[in-house]
Design a protein that fits this description.
Strand order of the largest sheet: 3-2-1-4-9
Low-confidence stretches: 1-10
Number of helices: 14
Structural class: alpha/beta
Largest sheet: 5 strands, mixed
Number of domains: 1
CATH topology: Spore Coat Polysaccharide Biosynthesis Protein SpsA, Chain A
């Protein structure tokens, strides 16, 4: 596959996009339950785990980390399908950078697939935000910056800096039981994405749980080239093994076009859902302290409420990780 040439972007701004949902509201729970019932028994555990929609102020820490560690970010777009989060704890300067975008705005003519409860479907369309810069950083709201980030950490000129590793996922395809393992769900999403641009499961690039640098122009070209696949991808209201990972498609397309920089530095920390269950808290603290070690720039905490049960002082630690909120003392463990 050969991508259309895109203009140099050294002087272009860099925006941030964050996807957010408040699945704690009664309205969202009822709506979700209705469409789950319609889908029947075909839904996977990875698609319906309630923690996928829980909102526990993660987005406040995410936003504060951007202000503290990437103040050069131009506009921060929050993509949602309900009332916006309460951002009153944040500074006036930070709130002035934030814009809210409804799912209907980005799905447009494809809004018949809404409502959706599927991050893969939403990620397929975030590049359609009107006014979004060509270069942008995509955040899940459970991903936080933990150290000063320079634009060159995410883009070298127009080229995205990718974090992850080369993997062989052949064994996943050879073992049918893997299709029911929630921990392997992302493997299939990467396989499906990489296959679209000619990569085999035996060697593909698996992105880390970090901020994803994306080019809007690249996503637009991919949408044109794989329109049927995108339309298929967004029709699933809940995650499905037939879907592809949009940022995975973007990354492999850039690798093919030689417009990506693959970063091998271990500058990120991922605390997975269920981490530390049944283990002494000291073991989890030892892992969490790595977040404030020199060189670590990204931290992902997949299930904040679950981890908070194990570590009651978790939010003190997280406040420290993101550089602190205005007027709040930093006192996390060192």
């Amino acid at each position: 596959m050969t991508l259309i040439d895109v203009p140099e972007a050294e002087a272009d701004p860099i925006d941030a996009v964050i996807t957010w949902v408040n699945g704690n509201t009664e309205t969202h729970r009822r709506k979700r339950a209705r469409y789950m019932a319609d889908a029947g028994a075909s839904l996977l555990e990875n698609a319906i785990n309630p923690h996928r929609w829980n909102s526990d102020d993660e987005i406040l820490y995410c936003l504060q980390s951007i202000e503290n560690f990437a103040p050069w970010t131009r506009t921060i777009w929050i993509v949602l399908d309900s009332d916006p989060p309460d951002l009153s704890r944040l500074s006036d300067a930070l709130r002035a950078k934030i814009r809210f975008v409804d799912h209907h705005d980005i799905f447009g003519a494809f809004s018949a697939v809404l409502p959706t409860f599927n991050s893969l479907s939403i990620e397929s369309m975030i590049w359609r935000i009107e006014g979004l810069s060509d270069r942008f950083m995509y955040f899940n709201d459970d991903v936080f910056l933990s150290a000063p980030l320079a634009p060159e950490d995410v883009f070298l000129g127009p080229n995205p800096v990718l974090r992850g590793k080369w993997v062989d996922y052949t064994a996943v395809l050879d073992a049918p039981e893997m299709r029911h393992d929630p921990a392997k769900f992302h493997h299939f999403m990467h396989i499906n994405a990489a296959k679209m641009v000619g990569f085999e499961a035996s060697r593909l690039f698996a992105s880390a749980h970090v901020v994803h640098p994306l080019r809007r122009s690249v996503m637009a070209q991919l949408f044109d080239q794989h329109a049927d696949a995108f339309v298929e991808n967004i029709k699933y209201r809940f995650r499905d093994l037939n879907q592809f990972l949009p940022q995975g498609l973007h990354n492999h397309a850039c690798i093919v076009a030689r417009t990506a920089v693959v970063q091998s530095a271990q500058d990120h920390l991922h605390i997975k859902s269920g981490h530390g269950n049944g283990r002494p808290p000291d073991e989890t603290w030892a892992k969490m302290r790595k977040a404030i070690q020199p060189g670590v720039k990204f931290v992902c905490v997949n299930d904040l409420p679950q981890l908070e049960i194990l570590i009651p002082d978790l939010r003190v630690w997280l406040c420290d990780v993101v550089g602190g909120f205005p007027g709040v003392a930093q006192s996390g463990p060192r």
